[in-house]
Specification:
The structure holds two protein chains of two kinds. Chain A is an all-alpha fold. In chain A, 76% of the residues lie in helices and 0% in strands. By secondary structure, chain B is of the alpha+beta class. Chain B is built from four helices and nine strands. The chains are: A mainly alpha, B alpha+beta. Chains A and B meet through helix 2, helix 3, helix 6, helix 7 and helix 9 of A and helix 1 and helix 2 of B.
Chain lengths: 187, 190
């Protein structure tokens, strides 16, 4: 959420007062990343939408206690979403969307260029997802927080209780392992 | 940054991360469903009603969580109990019913479950921000089946459940805050 601290402060202030426009703005801004994260972790589309709605419900519940920190409002919302998703698949006994059909659907995000190029790019993305799935759970989460949540190292550190430098190092190592997996699949 | 012949440009970390995000399904243009936006706005209004004197007032989750639209408490239960894993008997008897009153009902039906009765109700035209109760009138008295908060501009797809069996339900009413019936359906009896 690209917003200066003063702008975020005003937005949070409006949200605390129950301004529907403020909540809609928060929801719309956070939605692309929250839904991508939830879809990655939950089996069904409806379950993912419910998880995002539950995240917003909890945010409304807790907005009075929100204090601007290093993770920002986006990081705060994402922290709630992590808990919601975790509880969701603990309670339902369902699994992450790792079945081949889900992966195919994800990797089939439309690619630009000629049809031949698009086919190759789609295949490459599918391989990238497969390589990603072969990472450890910790590596996957670190990279998801970066690429899906859009959080920088400092924000991830605030969420996971680590120093920003340690997060950067861990992410670089996770990327190196992703590359190794990917090149192994392409060989 | 994707190069179809060799894979991602691995030395360009931001580009690799961007490509990974796309591969994992991130779409920066993704829009939330309109009915959920409406539900968020309705819940915010209730937060507003709590005001600064009650900053920790809990917003009513039913506005946000009921399977897409602001369905009632019964709606949530209905949604949760109809998950894909449910081993419910196939095709429980469904009965179309008719409501009369001051709202636009586009679909109304009862499902005769072994554990009780479920009302499926798609409607619009209620007073936005107003809470309505659904009541089953039975041979033994009334049974609350849930409630809903009206949202403007969308068809609310609601599900309500109550324990009385279909054979015991004589009528169903949607009641406003003053207890007056806004919708009424007298059910045919076997």
């Amino acid at each position: 959420m690209d917003e200066d601290p003063a702008g975020e402060h005003r937005l949070v202030d409006r949200a605390r007062r129950g301004d529907p426009d403020a909540w809609e703005l928060l929801y719309r801004r956070a939605y692309p990343r929250l839904i991508a994260f939830a879809r990655r972790r939950l089996m069904a589309e409806e379950q993912a939408e419910e998880a995002v709605s539950e995240t917003m419900a909890r945010a409304m519940d807790a907005i009075g206690r929100y204090r601007p920190g290093s993770s920002g409002i986006e990081g705060w919302l994402f922290g709630i979403a992590r808990n919601v998703v975790l509880e969701s698949y603990r309670s339902s006994g369902r699994h992450r969307a790792t079945d081949p059909t889900s992966l195919t659907a994800i990797a089939a995000t439309p690619a630009q260029g000629s049809p031949e190029h698009a086919v190759l790019v789609t295949e490459e993305r599918r391989m990238l997802v497969t390589a990603f799935e072969r990472l450890s759970a910790a590596d996957r989460e670190l990279l998801e927080l970066r690429v899906l949540a859009g959080l920088d190292a400092q924000q991830v550190g605030a969420l996971t209780g680590r120093r920003a430098g340690a997060v950067r190092t861990a992410q670089s190592r996770a990327l190196a392992r992703l590359r190794t997996n990917f090149e192994g699949l392409m060989a | 940054m994707t190069r179809s012949d060799q894979g991602p440009e691995w030395d360009d970390e931001p580009a690799v991360l961007e490509e990974l995000g796309r591969a994992l399904g991130h779409d920066s243009e993704a829009e939330p469903p309109p009915d959920r936006v409406a539900a968020i706005r309705a819940a915010a209004v209730h937060l507003q009603a709590g005001g600064l004197e009650e900053p920790r007032r809990r917003p009513d989750r039913r506005f946000l969580l009921a399977g897409g639209v602001a369905a009632g408490v019964g709606g949530i239960a209905g949604f949760l109990t109809r998950g894909s894993d449910e081993q419910e008997p196939e095709s429980p008897p469904t009965e179309q019913i008719r409501f009369s009153g001051d709202a636009d009902v586009t679909m109304s039906a009862l499902i005769n479950h072994t554990w009780g009765t479920e009302l499926l109700l798609d409607l619009s035209g209620l007073m936005p921000g107003t809470e309505y109760d659904v009541v089953f009138e039975t041979r033994g008295g009334t049974a609350a089946a849930g409630s809903l908060l009206a949202v403007d501009g969308v068809v609310m797809k609601c599900r309500f459940n109550a324990a009385p069996l279909r054979a015991d339900v004589l009528a169903i009413e949607l009641r406003g805050p003053d207890g007056a019936a806004v919708l009424h359906s007298t059910l045919p009896q076997a």
